[in-house]
User: Fold these one by one.
Assistant:
Number 1:
Amino acid sequence: MALGSSEILQRATGLSPVRSGDHFDIIVAGGGASGLMAAVSAARRGARVLVVETSGCFGGAGTTSMVAQWLGFYNGLTCAVGGLPMEFAERVIARGGSKGFENYVLAEATAQPLRLKRLPFNPEIAKLVADELVLESGASALVHARIAGARLEGDRVTAVQVETSGGRLEVRANCFVDASGDAVVARHAGAPLKGVGPGEHRMGMSLVFRLSHVDIARFRALSRQDKRAIALEGIAAGELFWDVLSISPVGESDAICLMSHLDGLDSLDPNDLTRAEFIGRYQVGRISGFLKRRMPGFAACELAAIASHIGVRESVRLVGDYLLTEQDVVGATPFEDAIALGCGPLDVHEEDGRLRLFMPSQPFEIPVRTMTSASVKNLVVTGRAISASREANGAIRHQATAMALGQAAGHLAAEAGAFGWDVRAVPHKIVQDGLAAAGALPSLRHLPAQTAAG
Ligand SMILES: Cc1cc2nc3c(=O)[nH]c(=O)nc-3n(C[C@H](O)[C@H](O)[C@H](O)COP(=O)(O)OP(=O)(O)OC[C@H]3O[C@@H](n4cnc5c(N)ncnc54)[C@H](O)[C@@H]3O)c2cc1C
């Protein structure tokens, strides 16, 4: 239940301190799209939860990397994500952080634009609502805190080591949800992973930035052909680095620009990540100068913000009890143990620079087995690091899907308490029924009848 602002302040002031040796039911690694949902979902079910987040706020790529448009709620006219992610979206809208869902042409200036529904939002408002969700849920939290190791006993993680400005803490739990996007706990626990090692291809990174004083209506009124011609001109001049002229509006005159693009760098290599932030900011300087000079609607623009963390599309993924494939996405394979629905689009940045972008013809099911592995019994991996092929990952990595997976992961972890904290022992029917009772749409049969056919 939503609290008033004085109660929020009281909860923030009264947050219980987290100390080395503390023991929780569930520790959630990362408070991004999926981790925020996992922590709140588990805490609402009565579990004692700690969420540990590297940055200073929750929301992950949507806030710290300013990826300010939610995709993955809708496939065509079918809304396939409800529950906690929809509550989050509705609360952002109610706070004035978004005007709501809109029809949009993704990658409009490229050779293969795609029509879909998106929800543009103000990432700063999303931070406020995320705080409220955490505080209302009663979860404990640590921000500016990085999980840097895991203690393993047999086939269970018993504790994680957390680096903070005050030194290293070790915190313990019965069950762990890895929502770090980079499978941090799974890696430290020795779970099998895909995409590890030098030379692995990663989708390109993008550093997002915000321009103020933009005439958004004027930019929107440009034809696709005009946008494409200007994009190609900018690339030829070395001032644009991608033909995607993607903007997400905040109010009438601020544009969050998703236009930089860096290939061939690995976010898990600290030297590459350092290069990426430098090169990303170089690109932002060039792009914003080009837009001001050349793009209708941008003549008066000013650089208002650069995301505090470059956007990372892909790193490593779990090799779980099931590997979701492109065929499962495209053919909507039915899974008895489905716990979330994906919508797409399938959005893969190929090694040769091509963008593979298309919408599956209907929502698709994601089985709980993509989040678990035989090697670590009390670990659930959620968000973009679930067990999926590169292509399937391209279809499940959108924020609404990551959030739906996060709600499911939190629910599963909370239920695991009755099964010796063995997440693989929890009957999937219990998770599905609980999720449905919380307003989520864990499988195609949970869609309202009139939309089930997409
Ligand atoms: C450039 C770019 C553009 C995108 N465009 C869109 C789009 O238009 N619409 C859309 O819906 N999606 C888009 N996505 C995809 C989407 O943003 C991500 O895939 C999604 O946020 C993944 O959710 P997640 O919870 O797995 O990871 P994240 O949201 O990234 O959250 C992971 C969290 O874990 C934290 N963390 C990491 N390591 C540790 C650690 N060791 N200890 C503690 N915390 C840790 C991070 O700080 C972060 O907050 C885009 C992504 C990128 C990078």
Number 2:
Amino acid sequence: MKRFVSACVYILALGVAAYAIWAYAFLPLGKLMGPEMRANFLAHRIGIYTHVFAATTALILGPFQFSGWLRRRHPWLHRMSGRVYLGVGVGVGGVAALYMSTFAYGGPVAKLGFATLAAAWLYTGFRAYRAIRAGAVAEHRRWIVRNFALSLAAVTLRIYLPLSGLSGIPFALAYPIVAWLCWVPNLLVAEWAFARRTALGAPVVASKALAPE
Ligand code: HEM
């Protein structure tokens, strides 16, 4: 079961990252969007490109950060890649997301949904970094799991949007709902997983290799 979930995370995260690179590096900006979103992206080119390419690094690197084998065999790689994940992916990607959330399509509910997600992404990333600098490995693990659950909002968003289209809900109504639905359940699943682990008596502590030099 654990392997199956892990395989799904790799496939979905890398799949959405590949989609983002294809759509934003090779197609004209906003080609796959409706006219309102396209106009918005064209008006904020730097913001959307910065967000998409920085955040994509989080989706590419994130799954590998959870590999116990990599952490044990190449702890330096885990540290380097973790710095890029947090600094570029979450840091740059999150600040650009916060900026873009103020222009998001879908009115105040969508704007607030994306802005809260961006703030939570930045906050959990900061807490994960601070924890590992203090050598608190278990705490680092909890915050980084929350943080990556939020990174996966990029995946869940792209699952829910076509589903809402198939269900016949108009895009203008579905988009603000999905702006919340794409991340709140992810966070709840992460909290549920922690509670389950604790109830089963499993150690929450990861490898010592995570601790700073
Ligand atoms: C988790 C924190 C994130 C937040 C708060 C966030 C926020 C946003 C916002 C506000 C927009 C503009 C939407 C609009 O104008 O209606 C957007 C678009 C976009 N974001 Fe993110 N995002 C996050 C994570 C990611 C990640 C990890 C990726 C990696 C692929 C990503 C890729 C994109 C893409 C490709 C778009 C353009 C819309 C599309 O093609 O569907 N985002 N994001």
